Amino acid sequence: MNLLVLLYDYFFLYWKSFIRQFIVACFISIIYFYFHKSGMPIESITNIMGILFGFSISTLAILISNDNKNIQLSQSYDVKKDKKTNKTYTLYFKIITGLTFTLVIQGFTLLTLLIVPAFIYDQCPIDLFTAIILGICIFCIMMIIHIVIELFLIIIKSA
């Protein structure tokens, strides 16, 4: 149930950004699938996702534990209001939601990278699997960049 609340909040706040990032990630992974036939090692993608996961957790920890005046102000700065639930979303909540969603995607991707190659390595076309995981990785990188830019603008108070 908690995952559904997170998904609703994420798509309500980041719908347009999600579409752009999803299209770019799909485009790059399709290009990879059709033109790169030598294959990227799964271990490389696993390492990249592990580093991104650690970076996302540290960013979330810094954001939550920071006592910066501008971050406190972002907790009262409204960015959107849901007319169905009459809930008001703050800038701080938007960034926390984006980071949490990215962490969930990265966690599921890391689990997939650890489990899938061990059990269905022979049945799954490895280039297709690699292209899908690469697309997810690119999406997560773009999402983290988007969130870090929002966090930067809060800290320097230009948002």
Describe the structure.
The protein is mostly helical. The protein has one domain (2-156). Helix content is 79%, strand content 6%. It has five helices and two strands. The protein has helices spanning 2-35, 42-65, 69-74, 91-120, 126-156, and strands at residues 78-82, 87-90. It has a two-stranded antiparallel ribbon. Helix 2 runs antiparallel to helix 4 (91-120). The longest helix is centred in the N-terminal third of the chain and has 34 residues, at 2-35. The protein is elongated and about 50 Å long. 23% of the residues are buried.
DSSP summary: helix tally: 5
Straight-line distance between termini? 32 Å
Largest sheet: 2 strands, antiparallel
> How many structural domains can be distinguished in the coordinates?
1
**Tally of DSSP β-strands:** 2
Helix content: over 70%
Residues in β-strands, percent: 5-15%
Mean pLDDT score, rounded? 81
> Quaternary state, please?
single chain
Rg, Å, rounded: 18 Å
> How does the overall form come out from the CA principal axes?
elongated
H and E string? HHHEEHH
Strand order of the largest sheet: 1-2
Uncertain segments of ≥5 residues (pLDDT<50)?
none
The structural class is: mainly alpha
